[in-house]
Each structure stands twice: as structure tokens, then as C-alpha cells.
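Bench notes, afternoon.
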Amino acid sequence: MHYLELLEKSVIPDFILLDIMMPEMSGWKLVKRLKETAWKNIPVIFLTTRTNKIAKTAGGILGEDYIEKPFDGADLKKRIDKILKATG
């Protein structure tokens, strides 16, 4: 099932954890498509193995946060809580 179809058929999530390298459509393309839809206000957190400066910069602009794998679970929770608190 296509990623956007999941949103159409599901309850709208509070946030989306999104990898950059995915089958079918990259995370970059998916977030661009999301920003063109009614789901444009869903916070996106990139969670990825991409560690280069360009990816970090783009992830910080396109999403609310950019987290590199491997990651600390407590840090991930803290970042998610911060975003949820900011989006109310």
C-alpha cells in the first residue's frame, strides 16, 4: 500500500517518524507530497542512517527534527515529547 493511502484510510497521526531511504518513495519525496496535502501540519521527524551535512540540513528544514541511527530511546522520546508539546 502506498504511504499516502495509509493516511487516507487511517486516523491522522500526531506525528510521523520517517526514514529517508525507503522503497517506492524516498522520505524526501514523501514529505514534499505531505506538505502539498491536508496533512501538511503533521510534524515529521526524520529517523535515518544518513549522516551527511546536506541531509541533516534538509531534514532540519523539511521536518521538525532529524535523528541519526543508531539513536538513544530516551533521547527519541524526549524529542517526540518536545514536538508534541509544541504542536499542542
